[in-house]
Amino acid sequence: WTALFAAGSNVNDVNCTVMAAKGAPGGAQVGYTLGIRVGGVEQRISAPVDKTVPVGRWARIAYTQEGSTARLYIDGEVVAEKTDMTNTIGDAYVVGEKCYLAKSPYPADPTATGRIDNFKIYTRALSADELVADVMANQEIVEKDKAALDLGEIAPFTENNLGVISRYI
User: Which residues contact 146 (CB under 8 A, 6 or more apart)?
Assistant: First the structure.
């Protein structure tokens, strides 16, 4: 369970949520997954093992739940759907409990390495169209930023002095 988001204090939590890039619940490998425990009863939605959160590039991931229908998305694509998810993150979260990004309350779980940007929690489920529009808007911002990036003249720098420069950036 490489945790991306978690809410809860420790392994004895009666109520907690863990969202992971991939996992191995009960020893069975799964892809992107989210588990919600309410009153000690855990429900989980998991993508197939080949649908993990990508490594080495930005990815837009989302979890939505409307009624008992839960969905996991990677870059606007539904990678898992569960129609009998009665536990909700709202039911699992106890005000005052700890929340984590890139870390799990479970000590044995690995900490995620990488960057998280634009983390949002909504009080409603976004539609697939809204999620795709959000992915596309972010892609446009990245493309504009890349086009505007100007590193200037970098030819004079050598391998020996790049290490010194990087400490000051």
Answer: none
CA pair distance 145, 148, nearest whole angstrom: 5
CA-derived radius of gyration, the chain: 19
In terms of Cβ atoms closer than 10 Å to its own Cβ (0-12, 13-18, 19+), residue 164 is exposed
pLDDT digits (tens, 9 = 90+) for 22-57: 888 778 899 999 999 888 888 999 999 999 998 888
| 110 in Cβ contact with 122 (< 8 Å) | no
Q: Is 42 exposed, middle or buried (0-12, 13-18, 19+ CB in 10 A)?
A: middle
Task: Please state the pTM of the whole predicted model.
Answer: 0.74
Instruction: Enumerate the β-bridge partners of residue 46.
Output: 33
Tokens read off for 145: 């930023």
